[in-house]
From TrEMBL:
Record's protein name: Putative F0F1-ATPase subunit Ca2+/Mg2+ transporter
Keywords, sorted A to Z: Membrane, Transmembrane, Transmembrane helix
Membrane-spanning parts: 38-60, 66-87
Comp. bias regions, Basic and acidic residues: 1-12
Region of interest (Disordered), residue spans: 1-32
Length: 98
């Protein structure tokens, strides 16, 4: 049976290398890697950064009575954070092959 176990391991490794089987580290909690998954993640990154920036600016404006200045500043900061997140998303990670 040991001969068959070695064959099964080699077969599984070959199928993974050819892209026929999912990689071992891709499980239920893995990030989506398809075009729809990456696009959805990019959209969520930008929208969430803008919402957090706008909410923080709005809250500080209400507290300090400076409306709309801090709202505008933090909205721009949130947009910049969203763009930075998209940049990080599409940059290749060290140690991965293209």
């Amino acid at each position: 049976m040991e001969h068959r176990d070695g064959f099964d391991d080699r077969l599984r490794q070959a199928r993974t290398q050819q892209g026929l089987d999912p990689k071992p580290d891709q499980g239920k909690g893995a990030l989506p890697t398809g075009p729809w998954g990456i696009g959805f993640r990019a959209g969520v990154e930008v929208v969430s950064a803008l919402v957090v920036g706008a909410a923080l600016g709005f809250g500080l404006d209400r507290w300090l009575g400076t409306f709309p200045w801090l709202f505008l500043v933090f909205f721009v900061v949130g947009g910049a954070a969203g763009v930075l997140n998209i940049y990080r998303l599409f940059m290749p990670r060290p140690g991965t092959r293209p």
